[in-house]
Recover the amino acids of this structure.
């Protein structure tokens, strides 16, 4: 028995009665109808195949466009990453150069003093040894500074235990003599003597910058009885270090700008304006602390607060 509905309809359309044998004419009509449906099926299949071709081509185009856009984004990301690396490298080099200035000056002053002694036949074995030891110490500091700043932008650096006294004595072993030579009194008042964790070398660079600025202000203003005072204490779970001087302070109209990069009131030769900018990055971004400044009657006070 015929089950297919379409075929049943065609048989009916051809005028065939399934209970009797079909005549030739109705059989031919049936064949024609069947042939027609085959042709229709082939046509529809072609149409479907065509539209599938078109949509898969369109899809390919869209995928290509997306892939291209992705590549462009990746290229731009890479470029931006490289640019920011270059900017970081530039900043790192400027920071090394900034921190090198002081020990380089000390090395050339020490060699000049040796030359002077040789020239005037005043060479003393003990003094010569001390001078060469100092040059070795300053050179070591130059070399350490490169290592310190090579890791400057790395986030996973390790903190170390230290005390403010330890850091101060290490700073003074480098710049102390030049302060004494300029008759600048260093007053130390350590009320907080406990050890705490911090990025010790970076902290040292900040202290050097603050002391160097105080020294510059004292010399520039020809202060009589110049001093730099270092005071430590704790307050609200913070370890605090204050570095103050009697150098006359900072004019109120510029005090807001002193932490900006390249802001300096000194001549181009003696100041780049990077010292406080760098110090602020170290304390606020790396150590998650605070670096502030205020004037008092004889000068200014820089306050460095580190979370304990
Ligand atoms: N202790 C201070 N007394 C008076 N003015 C200060 C003191 N510390 C900083 N300043 C002011 O802040 C400015 C910015 O200081 P910063 O250390 O950033 O740069 P700089 O000392 O001028 O240059 P560089 O650090 O490159 O030698 C100084 O030019 C100065 O005007
Ligand atoms: Mg400075």
């Amino acid at each position: 028995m015929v089950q297919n509905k379409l075929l049943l309809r065609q048989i009916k359309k051809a005028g065939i009665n399934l209970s009797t044998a079909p005549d030739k004419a109705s059989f031919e009509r049936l064949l024609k109808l069947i042939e027609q449906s085959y042709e229709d099926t082939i046509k529809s299949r072609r149409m479907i195949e065509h539209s599938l071709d078109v949509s898969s081509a369109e899809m390919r185009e869209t995928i290509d466009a997306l892939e291209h856009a992705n590549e462009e984004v990746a290229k731009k990301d890479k470029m931006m990453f490289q640019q920011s690396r270059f900017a970081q490298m530039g900043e790192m080099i400027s920071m090394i150069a900034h921190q090198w200035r002081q020990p380089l000056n000390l090395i050339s002053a020490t060699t000049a003093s040796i030359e002077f002694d040789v020239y005037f036949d005043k060479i003393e074995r003990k003094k010569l040894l001390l001078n060469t030891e100092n040059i070795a110490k300053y050179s070591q500091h130059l070399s350490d500074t490169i290592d310190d700043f090579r890791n400057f932008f790395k986030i996973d650096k390790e903190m170390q235990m230290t005390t403010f006294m330890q850091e101060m004595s290490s700073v003074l072993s480098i710049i102390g003599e030049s302060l004494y030579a300029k008759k600048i009194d260093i007053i130390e008042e350590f009320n907080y003597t406990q050890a705490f964790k911090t990025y010790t070398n970076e902290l040292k660079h900040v202290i050097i910058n603050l002391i160097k600025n105080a020294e510059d202000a004292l010399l520039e203003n020809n202060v009589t009885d110049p001093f730099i005072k270092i005071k430590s204490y704790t307050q609200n779970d913070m370890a605090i270090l204050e570095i103050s001087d009697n150098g006359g302070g900072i004019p109120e109209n510029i005090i807001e700008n002193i932490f900006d990069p390249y802001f300096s009131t000194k001549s181009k030769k003696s100041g780049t304006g990077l010292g406080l900018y760098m110090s602020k990055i170290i304390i606020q971004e790396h150590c998650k602390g605070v670096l502030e400044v205020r004037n008092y009657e004889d000068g200014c006070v820089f306050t460095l607060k580190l979370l304990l």
